[in-house]
Amino acid sequence: MVPYKIVRAPNGDAWVEANGQQYSPSQIGAFILTKMRETAESYLGKTVSKAVITVPAYFNDAQRQATKDAGRISGLDVQRIINEPTAAALSYGLNNKEGLIAVFDLGGGTFDVSILEISNGVFEVKATNGDTFLGGEDFDNALLEFLVSEFKRTEGIDLSKDRLALQRLREAAEKAKIELSSTSQTEINLPFITADASGAKHLNITLTRSKFESLVNHLIERTRDPCKSCLKDAGISTKEVDEVLLVGGMTRVPKVQEVVSEIFGKSPSKGVNPDEAVAMGAAIQGGILRGDVKELLLLDVTPLSLGIETLGGIFTRLINRNTTIPTKKSQVFSTAADNQTQVGIKVLQGEREMASDNKLLGEFELMGIPPAPRGMPQIEVTFDIDANGIVTVSAKDKATGKEQQITIRSSGGLSEDEIEKMVKEAELHAQKDQERKALIDIRNSADTTIYSVEKSLDEYRDKIPSEVATEIESAVADLRNAMSGDNIEEIKAKVDAANKAVSKIGQHMAGGSGGGSTPGGGSQGGDQAPEAEYEEVKK
């Protein structure tokens, strides 16, 4: 229930329509940044052209890219994008405080939790987690829905279709939420909220803190799992956490503070201002970039794993989540078919084993690969994440030097649940994912074995007895039949049988000595690397 219209943009994004105009999320962000820049310029008496912008730690690449776009639209040169919990820790640690710090950041639209270690001026993020669709707005909506249902129950009028009434209700809900952080009850009084045939209608409700807490308890409980996952990823227990910092206006809610104490086993610190700590940290980062603040080093991490789709639809990770950034990682792959002259690179972000279950960030083609047997070309795929957490991916044919790269940009709409669901779904479906991955891996291995065995048979058929050739063909047929099923152990057994059958070529060529290597490398078929439209080549 929002008092404005959401429309579908040509590229699939959700845009806002107002006064007959449609605006992208980056444009809306730019309006806010422009107002902030004007306010800063008025206060400072000088032009502001550069900025450090904070974002939720769990923002994905597309969201970070959209943030940079908003800065550019507003006329700002975005020097750095910094994660909000990290910025808060910078503010906290400026006075030479050290130790393991947990930053619990519940703001207006997002929730983040980060574990950092501060030591000798080095701020190292150990792990981060969160929910990009949990924040104060959700608390407002819960209270808004309660007010709408109460008014309908008492007056028989549904206010959810009245945009003006909704806007007044939303403002009243936010005001009541704030007041209930310091008082036990509050009055929500909205005269002339609507009218019917009998005359004007007024809304007057007394709301207690306990009632408000019951309405939003399910939202507060959603902060528990990200905190537990973050501690697990950081490899520490709650006892090892020295301080818990509260960031974001929603952490002023007493029930939120109570749950934080339960999660970490200690009362949160009052050492930072929840509303100012992030901005202060961004200012410190700006000072570091200008050289005004020295002897401070910030080591942040990427929140989600990055990789590509490989043969069978598997997600092959190149950079794991919680890797310190900036970072660069390369891996060599090869073609999956003879005389393949191009490969498609699908860039993904997430934690599931299957590519289709992760977020597709972008895709591109590397073309002009010289025709060669499969497995021969060496294609080096490189992921480069800068200090802003923005990804550039390149693919290079090592033989010709031909290279293609892409800076990942938002090309379509983001599902509201995609990011926070990735890790949770990975845990819920881990066993099923592993089984699917294992089956695809053994099928890929079997396919490679068949290719190698048949190649050897074609090469030596006229040099070996017909019964040996028949035995090899039978073993290959059995392997193909096993591959059509889902029995991993049976496929493994048939791979071994095919390798054993083809080894008789070597035995025959060596005069029956029985020890030689297998022509064509058939016996190595079970150890091949995963294939994309290409396969990994061991360096």
Count of folded domains: 4
Residue-averaged pLDDT: 85
Poorly predicted segments: 409-423, 513-518, 520-539
Number of strands: 22
Rounded to the nearest angstrom, the radius of gyration is 30 Å
Please identify the oligomeric state: single chain
CATH class value of the largest domain: Alpha Beta
Determine the N-to-C terminus distance.
56 Å
What would CATH call the architecture of the largest domain? 2-Layer Sandwich
Largest sheet: 6 strands, mixed
CATH H-level name of the largest domain... which superfamily?
ATPase, nucleotide binding domain
Biased composition (Acidic residues): 530-539
InterPro entries: ATPase_NBD (IPR043129), Heat_shock_70_CS (IPR018181), HSP70_C_sf (IPR029048), HSP70_peptide-bd_sf (IPR029047), Hsp_70_fam (IPR013126)
Family: Belongs to the heat shock protein 70 family.
Coiled coil: 159-186
Descriptive labels:
539 residues, alpha+beta, Nucleotidyltransferase, domain 5, Actin, Chain A, domain 4, Substrate Binding Domain Of DNAk, Chain A, domain 1, 4 domains, six-stranded mixed sheet, five-stranded antiparallel sheet, 13 helices, 22 strands, elongated
TL;DR of this structure?
It comes from Vitis rotundifolia. With about 550 residues, the chain is an alpha+beta fold. Helix content is about 40%, strand content about 25%.
